C-alpha cells in the first residue's frame, strides 16, 4: 500500500498531487476532510457532498479496509445481544433505510451492490444451543422484533443442506445482506460523481490551531487544510497523531478471520439465505451470494493489530461450518482473509462532534459497520450541515466516554 499522496476527482485518476493538493489557503480548502475511505468514510463524504459542501477523502486505498473482509449481514434482529437494546434502535433505523439507500446508490453509481432481502435462519445444533436460541427468541419478542421459532424439521425443509442434527431455529425474514466489496466500490463511484475529491495517502497527524481542528498532515509531509475534519478511520482512528486525549476515540482492533468458498453450478442452490449458529460457544455464519460465493465467518480475536490468517482460525471455521452444513467440505476454498473491526467500550459507534471543535467522529461500529452505513451517512451529513445531532443518534455521541473529573479534596 503506497504511502505517497496523490489525488483523483470525478471519474479520473490522472491528476497529480501537485495539481490537486489541498493547502492552508482557505480558498482551496474543502469544507470537510474525511479521514478514512472505508464504507463509513465514503458514505459520510457522499451524503455530505449531496448537501452542497465540498468534501475530500484521505485514504491510501479508498474502498478498502474492513469492507474487503466483512460478510455484509444486515442482521439487526439476529445480532441482538443482551444489554444492547439502545444500539438495537439505531440498527433497526438503518436497516429500515437500506432498500431506499441501495436503490439510490445503485442509480448514482450505475453499479450493483449485491443487496438481497433473503432473510436469515439461526439454528441450534444441540440442547444447549437450543436453550440459548429460545432465550434469544424471548428477548427479541420482548423487544418488539419479529422472528419465528421453527422445529429442526422445519429448518431442514427451508434449507435441505443443513445437518440432520439441527434441533430448531429462528427464521428472521427482516435480516438481509449486501456485498460489502460491491457496496464500497459503488460508494467510491458515487462520491466521485458527486464531486468528492480523493487524496491517496496516510493521514498521520491532526493539525490544531486556536483549539480547533484545521486539517491533517500526511506521511510525506503534505499539509491538508479543511473547515472541519471527520475521523472515520475504523480501528486506526485511535492512532491519528495530534488528537487531544479528550477527543481521541476509544476504539480498538478486533480481529476477524473469514473464508470464501465457491458454490459450483452443479451444487446450486446450496443455501437460499444466511444461516448462522453457535457451535461449542463459537459463532459461525454462512452467507450465500447470488454470484455463487459463500462467505464463512468469523472469528473474534483480541490480538491487537495482527491480521495473520492462521491455520487454527481456518480449521475452526471449517469445522464448525461442517457441523452446520456437512456438504461445505466439497466446495472449493478460494480465499482466506483477516480484518480488524473497530470496537468501542460498549460495542456501539461514536458519531458526531468531539470535545475538540472542528473534529467529528464516525467510528467504533464494531460488527455493525455495514449495517449502519446508511444511518451513519445521514447522521454525519446532518451534523455537518445543520449543526444538530439527530435524536436517534444522540445516545452515540463521543461525549459518553468523556473522562470523569475527580473532585479534589478540600
Topology at a glance:
Blueprint: E1 6-8, H1 17-20, E2 32-35, H2 39-50, E3 55-58, E4 73-74, H3 85-109, E5 120-124, H4 127-142, E6 148-151, H5 152-158, E7 168-172, E8 176-177, H6 180-193, E9 197-200, E10 203-209, E11 212-218, E12 223-225, E13 228-231, E14 252-262, E15 274-279, E16 282-288, E17 293-297, H7 311-324, E18 333-343, E19 350-353, E20 359-363, H8 373-386
Parallel strand pairs: 2-3, 2-13, 3-9, 5-15, 13-20
Antiparallel strand pairs: 1-9, 4-8, 5-7, 6-7, 10-11, 11-12, 14-17, 14-18, 15-16, 16-17, 19-20
Describe it for me?
The longest helix has 25 residues, at 85-109. Strand 19 (350-353) and strand 20 form a beta hairpin. The protein has 410 residues and is α+β, with helices and mostly antiparallel strands. It has 2 domains: 6-67 and 182-251 and 346-401, 3-Layer(bba) Sandwich (FAD/NAD(P)-binding domain); 120-173 and 252-343, D-Amino Acid Oxidase, subunit A, domain 2 (D-Amino Acid Oxidase, Chain A, domain 2). The chain has helices at 17-20, 39-50, 85-109, 127-142, 152-158, 180-193, 311-324, 373-386, and strands at 6-8, 32-35, 55-58, 73-74, 120-124, 148-151, 168-172, 176-177, 197-200, 203-209, 212-218, 223-225, 228-231, 252-262, 274-279, 282-288, 293-297, 333-343, 350-353, 359-363. Helix 2 runs parallel beside helix 6 (180-193), helix 2 crosses helix 8 (373-386) and helix 3 (85-109) packs across helix 6. Strands 6-7-5-15-16-17-14-18 form an 8-stranded mixed beta sheet, sandwiched between helices. A 7-stranded mixed beta sheet has the order 1-9-3-2-13-20-19. It has a 3-stranded antiparallel beta sheet with strand order 10-11-12, with no helix packed on it.
